[in-house]
Design a protein that fits this description.
The protein is of the alpha/beta class. 40% of the residues are buried. The model has no long low-confidence stretch (mean pLDDT 94). 37% of the residues lie in helices and 21% in strands. The radius of gyration is 18 Å and the shape is globular. The strands form 2 sheets. A 7-stranded mixed β-sheet has the order 3-2-1-4-5-9-8, with helices on both faces. Strands 6-7 form a two-stranded antiparallel ribbon. A hairpin with a 2-residue loop joins strand 6 and strand 7.
Length: 280
């Protein structure tokens, strides 16, 4: 992708999320499906972490995951391109009294070579499709190797190019939303707090191909494949019995084909390979 175009989009992303930082927690703290998603992602991440692990978090937002991990005894370096998100994160760290286990730094995930704190880390973590805000995901993935310890892990939550729930919106005549991920190799425009930014969709195969030389795939789970996406925020309250059933069904099938590929998101995990050296 053209570097100038990507740089311009990053500035727009920063502006958009600076604006959203003012309302982010208020908008999403009461959404039951978002809480479900957070629990799923955290359960997936923690099963691969060793006690006391040091984690590099990308697109950390206002710090909900960093605080959760810090309270569990992990050490988190929380990064984000948005100064507004970082400001809210620092305020929450002080309020929650966990700032001893969390450090923070304003940094784009396309510029991880400029990090002041380069680790190396036990894990790299990116939640809720932050990585879909770049057309240079290949560059981001290539930077992980030098930031990780041997056998370090990577856990990413990404929007794929097809979502079953969105495709069903065709039945309601919402053609634009139902097809927005299709034929989107050049990205799709999205509006965040009045700022128009470009988002890209990436299949698990895209990520795997670019990680396979130095990382082993250790897991893929579909997220909001059977459970509705979080923009259907009133669904759990309107249909509590059905929602409970869908959660149980998704837990059962989350790692099975085709469900792991057709959710609103997928959670994908890798472990860094041990590089064997030959003696002369």
């Amino acid at each position: 992708m053209d570097n100038q175009i990507n740089y311009y989009n990053e500035q727009l992303v920063s502006d958009a999320f600076n604006g959203q930082s003012l309302v982010f927690d208020e908008l999403y703290s009461t959404n039951s499906i978002i809480q479900y998603k957070r629990e799923r992602v955290r359960d997936h991440l923690i099963k691969y972490l060793k006690p006391g692990s040091h984690i590099l978090e990308l697109n950390a937002g206002t710090g909900d995951d960093a605080i959760f991990l810090a309270q569990k005894g992990y050490h988190v370096h929380a990064t984000d391109i948005s100064s507004g998100m970082q400001k809210k994160l620092v305020e929450k760290l002080i309020r929650k009294e966990v700032n001893g286990n969390v450090t923070n730094e304003i940094c784009s995930f396309t510029a991880l070579n400029t990090l002041k704190n380069k680790g190396p880390y036990d894990a790299i973590f990116s939640n809720f499709a932050g990585l879909n805000c770049t057309g240079d995901l290949k560059q981001v993935l290539a930077s992980f190797d030098t930031l990780l310890k041997p056998e370090g892990i990577v856990v990413l939550v990404i929007l794929p190019g097809f979502c079953l729930w969105e495709s069903l919106l065709l039945l309601k005549g919402k053609f634009k939303t139902a097809t927005r991920r299709l034929f989107s190799s050049n990205g799709r425009r999205a509006n965040v707090e009045g700022v128009s930014i470009t988002c890209w969709y990436y299949s698990p195969d895209f990520v795997i191909r670019r990680m396979k030389d130095k990382f082993n795939l250790i897991g893929i789970e579909g997220l909001c494949t059977i459970v509705p996406p979080s923009y259907m925020e009133k669904f759990p309250e309107k249909h509590p019995g059905l929602y409970s059933y869908l959660c149980k069904a998704e837990n059962r099938y989350k790692s099975k084909w085709p469900w792991k590929y057709i959710g609103d998101y997928y959670i994908i995990s890798f472990r860094k390979k041990i590089q064997l050296t030959t003696s002369q």
